[in-house]
User: Fold this.
Amino acid sequence: MLFLLSPLCSGLLAWLLSRHLPFAGGGTALVVLAGLIFGFASALFLRIVLAVCNVGQPRDDGSSIGRAASDGALVLLPFTVLALLAELLLGWNATQAFASAAIMASSAAIGASAGRLGGRRWASSIGLSLAGVLLSASWMVFCALVALGAGR
Amino acid sequence: MTSAVGARPGGRLAAVVGMMFNPGAVLQLRLAGVAWPFAMAVSGAAFTLVFLQTGLDLLKTGRAGGGRVVLLALAGLLYGTLGILLVGLVAWLLSRAFGAKRSPGWAMRAYALAYSPALVYGACGIVANVAFGWRTSIAFGVTGLLWAIGPVMAVNDELTGGRKGPSVVLSIVCGGLALLGWGLLGRL
Assistant:
């Protein structure tokens, strides 16, 4: 689920971002592709951090970690739908705020879920929250690079 | 002792701060002791501060007068109290389809208290707005309301008995309602 939702939501948020920049059709497609890649890389990073935080746990067959990742990934959906509503219905330009909050909230949710499902509670919570901060900062860099690519 | 948390200032602060960092625990352990007026005051004050910052930002750029600033703050108060209670009621009604065991009162108090992050960000924002002259409606106002989505999702988790799929559906519908209400009232 994490490897499906993270690229999907990142791609959609990247598309919203591109609407405010002077891209032509091909440029928009490139930004969406970059968003998909960002989302996939983020999912991979979160999954690695989650595994590292829970190395050596007695029930370490991967199933509880996988479920924690899926539970946390679901948090991305409401943020993404609300970002679409805010942009397309209300005409706001707030994709960056929605994306940062989505990344940090879902990372924290993955950590909390891992703790509930038998993982290391503190290591998972702190590790995934820090990973969320790092990814949120990376998203801002991504936005800056996209703006640079658009000549802004 | 149903108003135990509401009666103690330390307990009130713990409920607000707890809702920011560990909403699941607050909902399970503390919400029964949170009084109605306190829960409504949290969301009411949160939206009043957010709308007030929007008004003050418009005032700074010459796009609004004092009257509109007051009108926006009053709209925020109305929306943060009655509007959010209504959204909580809608969430409870929808959650019944998923076999919710919580009462409508529980859902409405939980929804109101879920806006604790918006209150904290709103309070910091109004200080920065008035003391330093910053424009804070986006940086503090919108950010605080976005941070409230996490606790709102925790409320929906409880309402749906921890079932993630229904909880996400509820979060999208009720989050969308809250966002649209906020967006439309903000155009006053």
Summary: Residues 1-7 of chain B have pLDDT under 50 and may be disordered.
